[in-house]
User: Fold these one by one.
Assistant:
Number 1:
Amino acid sequence: TVLSDSSNFEVKHPLNSKWTLWYTKPAVDKSETWSDLLRPVTSFETVEEFWAIIQNIPEPHELPMKSDYHVFRDNIRPEWEDPANSKGGKWSFHIRSKSSDIDELWLRALLAVIGETIDEDDSQINGVVLSIRKGTSKFALWTKADDNTEALTNVGTKFKQVLKLGDEDKIEFVPHSSTGKYVQATITL
Amino acid sequence: MVRYTVDELFHLKPTESLPVQFDAEEFKAIIEKVKQIQALKEEEFNAHGGHFNR
Ligand SMILES: [Zn+2]
Ligand SMILES: [Zn+2]
């Protein structure tokens, strides 16, 4: 048809990777398992598709408590068990859930991640997560490796700029291998 | 590697809302439902003086 032909002429700006938006739904009854709660919502590989999604999903301040948004590269699942994540870790920043900045900071974090401006050379970033909780919510930037201190420090420094953090605000890097046992930050910025 | 600065990405934001490849209405409806259930639970909790009466 004329309509679908004309849409082919729209200029779309390709992203470096395909990305998938995942949502963790809060459990509302006990029968729900983890695989019922964590679900891919949709994927995108152009700037225009990204904006279309953003315009059609609730902003962070509209999400119920115990929700997570995850945006991960290619077909990486947003779980530390995924082979792409298993040798990695995450930079985390905690923010008061009442903060009016969460919507804006989440958008900035997404734009920095999908625009690939957090890394200098090849990409260390697997994905980014926003966890909405009562009291304190959390931003987390997931990396593919946990042992390249110099690269991770660069990534963390950039992540702080993206989140507009000052020297007094602290972010921590924790390898996934230490999560659940003795959670210990290996780098703090 | 294809890169875009945050500013470039903002400039590429379309002025009109574009269609998406998933059921956005269903997604929003699920979220609204969860919020309603959470609000009801909260209300019940508060009605019992801050504890659940089982
Ligand atoms: Zn808003
Ligand atoms: Zn500008």
Number 2:
Amino acid sequence: MADNAIKESSIKKNETGLKVVIYIVSVIFAIMTLFPFVIMFTNSFRSTFEIQQSTLGMVSAHPFQNLAKNWNEITNKEFHPLIGFKNSFIISTLSTILNVYFSSLTAYAISAYEWKLRDAFNNMIVGIMMVPGTVTTIGFVQIVYKLGLSNKLFLFIIPAIASPMTVFFMRQYLQASLSMEIVQSARIDGAGEFRIFNQIVVPLMKPAIATQAIFGYVASWNNLFMPLILLTETEKKTIPVMVKLLNGDIYRREYGAIYLGLLVTVLPLIVVYAFLSRFIVEGVALGGVKS
Amino acid sequence: MRNKKLVNYSKYGYLFSIPFILTFLTFTLYPILFTFWIGFTDLTGAGNTNWHFIMSEEAVGGPKPLFDNFVAVLGNGTFQKAFKNTVLIWTLNFIPQMAFALLFTAWFTDRRSKVKGQGIFKILFYMPNIITAATIAILFNVLFGYPKGAVNDIILGLAKAFGVKKDLMLSSPNDWKIAVAYDFNNNGTALKLIVAFVQFYQWYGYTMVNLIAGVIGISPEIFEAAEIDGANRVQTFFKVTLPCIRQILLFVLVTSLIGGLNMFDVPQLYAGEKKANGAVLTLNMFVRSQGLDNRYLYNKAAAASVIMFIVIVILSSILFYVLRDKDEAKLKKLRKQELKALKKGM
């Protein structure tokens, strides 16, 4: 191979030197990434008093008693992680399903059919990808107030049907992988267009759907700006809106409780990430934007 | 068989786009137009249903010039501060973010020195991006806490280890601790730097993964050719790799620009609007605080968000123009000229 051709020792020395630098920098960044989470985890098992002595202390004498105490501390006030999880789960799951299904459908409409306004529609989708969310906010909030719809979860579910970014990715994927011959032969077999989409095209798009679903789920789960304005009842708050409470005066200086509250919101994400990370990072995910 | 071929399928194109179009019109376009409209009215106050076009006789305080709200927002010192802060914090985060993302991309995709264990590094670097920004903001706020917090504990530990005693006159050990600890969260510059750092911390991995995906998509033959031509690592990266991932660079730049100008979660939850004299007040926080927080100046908030929209459109267009495919544009021009020449000839 070409690599074997390089045998001069000076080059090899350079090579190891570079590798050492790469590893040192990477390890520093890995520590930087993990440090906050490690502190958060260890301090969830420590009492506020212990934390005030030193944040960096490791194990407490009564870790589980402290954990129970911290848990009582957070749930006795306004922070109810279970309610937050329930609402976040409903919003993220339903909106993700709508998002990937209808984005696939729209992308299929653009790539499989010839229609007059197709190019205009396609350009419009690319254009609205650039529109910042803020510019919809004030108008959206006013309409919601006028119709008396605040604290309704569907406000964050239905709009997912029109996600220009996902349509864009799905279209890129379809253009590379959809062969019209399969569609034609299904037509000859007498399948209707809608059935062809559901039974042939959707299974074909599985990799793209999986990756877009992950990104959609995370984005929806972490959304703060609009829910903060529109979900004001405790029963309707999502996790990020709940998290905001940890910063307020009610938990002032209750460090053990704050760390535990943060940990509770992070844990499900880390568990899911542990299973899906390879998939996200391998680059399959973003293959859509290849040059 | 023949009948099948005569079926006109184009109607399905329209049919399948209907859900998208209807949702877009209701939940995106209508609110956007409504925001624009509110920017030209006297709408203030919670639950106000009696509001008017700003130039009409019925408007509160009599008719005003068409762009009154916009002029008021642009002249507002708080808005100007929010604008400056947003640009400054975005730049402080974006430059190192791009630099490190490109560096790791170059290292992890290098064909000559295959870095072992890079899978784990990639997974770790990307992780902060999936964690709720609100959580990360509060976590860092506690870490930088004063007088007790992880960062101050580290500073204290180092001070002790190196025998630094800031103030020998302090008698009790607790006083000594406080003299060494630093109140990061009440200092404007420190706050800006920390918020920029948290943004960096959340986004460099995302940018890196995007860039790596682009590099993986480049045909290996191109690199082989570069190697045979004797290009070294640095030359290969700047002359071959970067031009090949121009599309992805554009995507990363534009999304980062939009995300950066819309920055909200981290500064809002790390410090809020008023901390250290509004040191990390961003444009999005300004819009929210105008529209809510007992002010209810909806018309000003709408005007401010329209201004943001215009700024983003201008900056995105500049990026698109700078990073456009110049060769392709030239080809298109040539083709057009040829066509014209042909037509004239005919």
Number 3:
Amino acid sequence: MSDVSLTVNGRRVTGTVEDRTLLVHYLREHLGLTGTHVGCDTSQCGACVVHVDGKAVKSCTMLAAQASGSTVVTIEGLANGAELHPMQAAFKENHGLQCGFCTPGMIMAAVDMVNRHPEGLDEATVRAELEGNICRCTGYHNIVKAILAASQVMLKGTAQVAA
Amino acid sequence: MYSVNYHRASSLADAASLAKKGEARYLSGGMTLIPAMKVRLAAPSDVIDLSHIAELKGVSVSGNSVRIGAGTTHAEVAGNAALKAICPAICSLAAHIGDPHVRHMGTLGGSIANNDPAADYPAAMLALNATIVTDRREIPAEDFFTGLFETALDEGEIVTAVTFQAPSKSGYSKFPNPASRYAMAGVFVAQDQDGVRVAVTGAGENGVFRSPEIEAALASNFDASALQGVTVPSDGLMSDLHASAAYRANLVVVMAKRAVGAANG
């Protein structure tokens, strides 16, 4: 067993976990943060993407013990109260989801993508950067539109949230 | 995943001493080891996390001499401006490993110590005539990669860095499998005053190898046109459901042409 201590969505959390506990299971089952999804469970689909110390990672491919000491942001940590994060708002506005299963990972990956491209994004870059996130409903078209729209809002204004 | 004991090493000495436990494995970015443990292809009793050892981190460039710490992530290699200025091919290679999330975790040291036959970095190490530095010695890349998932590393030995001289020109091109995105053939070419070195990943039955046919063709004329009509033997190339050995042999030449094109900018 390992003692872990993290900051998750601004809240300090501590716990004792089996060493083999994956970060995604710690988030979902120990902290009740079920917005982060397990899709393929083989490190391909990106439904489990969260930010660890400001970087998008696949939380199904990291032990909770590895993440101990880190700052984690999940999909639950993006909105400011009732006000959606610009990326969440853009996915809603542009119909960037159908079943919604991949959406938390898509949005966390997309926020990371915008943060890493302060010079701005174009469609080709967005499509290439989505390599690690799989959606089986939308054909990606509206996801790409949503990310481009949100990147305009994020880069214009207020800042990088969850960076 | 089977039960495992996690240890966070604070130094190389600490890691080496922890590695004496049971069936211990070193853990760097974990982008191969953790998935392998999840499907029980790997079942170490202990994992020793190397990612908090400061001396394994970072890229240093001095003139044409490059040193990349083994714990440097693919994203850090891809984004290093000093490295990009003298050896853009290795930055481009790193920028196309896996996906953005994998590149935030996966490390150069982890990649070469694993020596997956379809991994990208082994081709760069061999073509750049790199030296693999460990906590015990220095190993030329030529002697380091010894077969499928096999290296010259001894039990418990830790890759700490790689060093190389940036060549005058270098380029890398791979044909990714459409599903897995691993290279079905990836070719790294490097040219400097000592000649041309060409290394191939993704195609060899025994992992990464140098291609004498392509090196000979490029030695006198470092241009994609010099590879017109050049063939490489399909003996010793992988043949699987994705591609036959003959297909891969052709792909190697095509990727070499593109790599030379990239090297010549």
Number 4:
Amino acid sequence: MRLKHFMLLLFVAITHITLSQCSLKISGQVIDLDDGSELADCAITLLPMNKVVTTDSHGQFVFSDLCSTNYSLFVQHIGCSDTLIKVNLIKNVFVKIKLPHSAFELKEVDVMDKRIEMKQTQMRSDITGEELDKTRGLTLGEALKNVSGVTSLNTGGTISKPMIHGMQGYRVLIVNNGVRHEGQQWGNEHAPEVDPFIATRLSVIKGANAVRYGSDAIGGVVLVEAPELPDTTGVTGEVNMVGASNGRSGIASAILQGKFEKLKNFSWRAQGTYRKAGSIHTPNYYMKNTGVEEYNFSYALAYHRKNWGTEVYYSQFNTKVGVFSSAHIHNLTDLKNALELKKPADSLAEFSYQIGRPNQQIEHELIKSKTHFHLTNKWRLNFQYAYQYNKRLEFDKHKPLNDSLAALNLPELDYRIQTQTADLVVEHDNIKSFRGQFGGSYMHQFNNYLGRFFIPNYISQTWGLFATERFVKQHIEFEAGVRYDEKYLQSYFYKNNELYSPNLKFNNVSWNVGAIYKPNKHFNAFANIGSAWRAPAPNELYSNGIHHGVGAIERGRESLNPEKVINATLSGIFQTEKIQAEVTAYHNQFQNFIYMNPALNPELTIKGAFPVFTFEQAKARISGLDIKSTFVINHHWNLMAKAMLLRAWNYTINDYLIYMPSDRFELNARYQFKVSGNRYFVAAGYQYVNKQWRVPAQTDFAPPPEAFGLVAAEIGSLFKLGKQSLNISIAANNLLNTVYRDYLDRFRYYTDAAGRNIQLRIKMPLIIYKPKTKMKNEK
Amino acid sequence: MKNKMMAAIVSVLILFAACKKDKDLQPLPPPLTNSPELITSLKLLFTDSANTSTVLTAYFNDPDGPGGNAPVQFDSIKLQPNKTYLVNLLLFDQTKNPVDTVSKEIWEERDEHMFFFQHSGVTIQTLYLDVDTKSLPVGLSTKWRTGSASNGTSKITLKHQAGTKNGTITPGETDVEVLFQTKLN
């Protein structure tokens, strides 16, 4: 009987009659084997093409434009064994996949948390299922690089900030579990404080998306989405383990979730991750003090009734990151010396897990409470409140000279930000082909520093109102939205020993219009034009001092105006049986683009002369092209090619914008096969990153590094040990141990990038507890 | 029963989640004197070895430290040619009240620090008069022998060389680097 739970029941229903060779469709629904509930967020991979879709809130999915041949569906859902289904496609089919999710239980809650699907006229790229598994153990910034058009701005091998179309920091919004992530963005060496193991899906929306996510979503939005809480009883889970050779790192992450038998309206989830890594190895040496120690955990509890539900979520992120000690320079002479060295001064011959000075210690805490009401069967109301606390401590390379101060071992930089956000959204499903959302949001933020001054203390308040509507027909869809925001920024700082407390107000309207055109099964076109804006940030307004580790004096400008952008994105998806191609062309036209401009004269200090950078505004543009295509050669082989081209220009100074990604290309080949029911694959890839020669004159400390090419390889398998299914893969990055430096790595001045890294990944879905039907009958 | 217990535990965990709110947070920035250690000023005292009553000084003073306001005083070094001077070097942190004499702390950590004197355009011979516990020079106390009348520069550098001090300027990080105009006449 128990075996049944691990088996799959397949209903094949004929819905249409074949018309032509390659216009077939596999649609389907994933439901719970025992209680028939619809399973959302299942990742379904269509093989051999490796096309991944996730099921919607009704558990439904569709693959279209398929030929009459053999396919397999690879189904993954948290807490379930990964499952493979063969489909010999002759006619259009509807596949009902019954996953052994939990035991028999009479359902008392009928209407669950059904979200109203809100697709957008901007293309959204998801990393989920097998693709997400491949990124396990990477930081958020590194994992997102799988999406074409996304790169990252790195600080050594441990700190990585996601960059969408050359934009990062304040211009990229990260939405963590539905809450806009408010960390500390005022430095390029500040990575997002998010544990990617929480997510079952990472998504990137490229291009301005102000109306829906907040006026400052200029470059795009990153969505980190946790799975929906279970609506069937029992306890399920998943364990992920990653070991990597470079840095000798070990990561373990576990998730447990379930629904109570007695308290049927409650479901819950608990999750935790621990990571430890030591010195990173470049092809020729170890980098001293590049270890990481991190522990994160989260838990969630939801209560559901027929017409409403509420959810509480808490997460904590704690990390201690060593900063490569040779990169902690004190002045320009030190930087010049570092640039002249082929091998950095602090290159170690030995490996160590020890994290000494300089280092960063960061803590991020999030508490979220979310409630929804189904007002009618078409209308729904959501309310969400969240509190975030972010503490960032930075320790310099040396303790203070004064013994009593040194004994305290205080951080030289200590910033704490508290943020409260409240959102109210009303949404409606199809009313005469219209779907829409209206709402408002409020944010209160409080910054407080101890130690060295870099940005002032401030209190900021932002509120916004928005409305967006969609018109959906079979071949065409239209979308239009508008938003109004107001921001107040009250800062406190000393200037010539006097306390200043300027109060600024910014307000603006943002909008977007878009369309989707679906003339036939082979071609979909997306077009979107939208505006976004952001108020200048406190560091851009008021910073005044040496940015340590950068070797420059940064000066804010109090008269900065809000930065505004108009973004146009045009995307096309072309698909046939053998080829799938995705092309996105975009253009961002900036008004008042905020950037750092070198001042003419260096500033004299007791530490020597420092170059001075002031925050300036300019008319600028960023435009480019992202291409991704997959070629299916046969059932075993497929090829994937990606390209990213980007051009950026500052009209005001007639020069390039700094720190923009260079053009890059990627080619991957994959071979897959099955041996006695177990699935195996072998893959290899090559990435070429061109030299960024489009750089502004005389603003950088060193010329951009040369172009480089990296080889990667992976071998993986899904197999069953008795009843337990296991995913195991071994992957190698920088397989040839290539010596290179990346323009988008701030440590390229000091050191080569990391060498070969071999990772072992193990994923184990668990079914821990299932109430048995028998027991229930006995009672 | 078991599940009720679990429900209770989970809800208690969530309701009483240790919310790390800083009680001491306030909108006002911390007092200036609370800021981390800085070196704001460098003073050179030149004592004529033939006539100890004559003490010349050269002062670099940037009371609010690097960044912020420009230095308020930046003297030239003016010495007589063909003489020998005993030179004492003092460092201060003027953001502290009372003013912190950082050079005292440099002496306490002399095994990790060393001053360097690089003259250009002027003939000055610099001899170290002090050593650390490993007999490597420090430079808080030096002897300068001036040559013929000329104009040039003297670069004074303090390197922090924790565990790497070897008597040369190469290792470590720069704590101080001041380029004085030097006149011998």
